[in-house]
Amino acid sequence: MRARRAPDVRLSGLLLARELLGYQHSRAQFASWLEPPRPQLTLMIDLDGWLDADGQALPDAWIGGLDDRPTTVGFGDTYGAIDLKLTPLGAYTLTGLPLCELAGACVPLADVFGREGTEVAARVRASEDWDERFDLVEAFLLRRVAAGPTADPAVAWAFERLRATRGAARVAALAAELRCSRRYLRDGFVRQVGLPPKVVARLMRFQHVREQIRSEPDPAHPRWSDVAHSAGYADQSHLNREFRELAGTTPSDFVSRLIPGGGVIGDRSH
Length: 270
What we know:
Elements: E1 2-5, E2 20-26, E3 32-35, E4 41-48, E5 51-53, E6 56-57, E7 61-64, E8 71-75, E9 78-86, H1 88-95, E10 106-108, H2 109-113, H3 115-126, H4 130-147, H5 153-164, H6 171-178, H7 182-192, H8 197-215, H9 224-230, H10 236-246, H11 251-256
Antiparallel strand pairs: 1-2, 2-9, 3-8, 4-7, 4-9, 5-6, 5-8, 7-10
Helix pairs in contact: 1-4, 3-4, 5-7
C-alpha cells in the first residue's frame, strides 16, 4: 500500500520525486532488494518493521548520503516507512552540513537534526493517519529549509548541467565555463553534493541506463549496445564494467531481478 501527496511548493527544490511518499507492505516474496547508487539522498522514518544494509541494522529514522557502491537492503515480513528522495543541493540546505559527512553512510536523524529529528520521527510513528504524518514531515522540512544555507551558485549550475546532460558534460569544460578551477568545483561538490563531480556524473549516467531499461519495448531483453551508446559509454564492455562495479552483478542478471516499479530483488533465493 502506498500513500502519496504533493508537497508544499516551497519544497520543490528538495524532493527529487516532488512528492511525499509512504508505504506499507507485508508478505513479500523476497527478503532483500538490490540498491545501486543513485545521484540522490534518502530520508527514511520507519513506521513498522526494520531494514538492514549489507547485514548491518539501520536506525529507525535516518538520512543516507551519496555513495558509489551497491547495497543489499534486507527487511522483515512487514515493513512500513516514510521514504523521501532528496536532491543533493536541497539536502545541503536541509541539513546545513557538509554532505561529505553523510557520504556512504546512513546517519540517524537525531545525529543530523538533534532533538528536532528525534521528535518528528516519534510523532510520525505515533500517528496512524497518512495526512497527519505528511503534515508533520512537511512542517519539519519547511522549518529546516527556511533556516538552511544556500548552495554555491557555481556548484548549483554545474550540478544542473550534469543532470541535464545525464552525466555527459565534461568537468573541465564546466569549470572553464564558470571561470573557476577544477579544484574549486571539486571541493564545492564534495562539500555541497557529497562526492566529486566526476563520480556524480558517473552515477547520473548509470541512472540513465536504469531508466532506459524500464522504457525498453522488451525490458527483459534490452539492446545493450544501444543502451551503452545512448548513455555515453565507449562500448558494451564499458557498460558491463559499470554494472559490476555499481550494481554488483551483470546486466542480464540485473534485468532478471527487476520487479514492477523499478526495484531489483537482492536475494534470488527468496
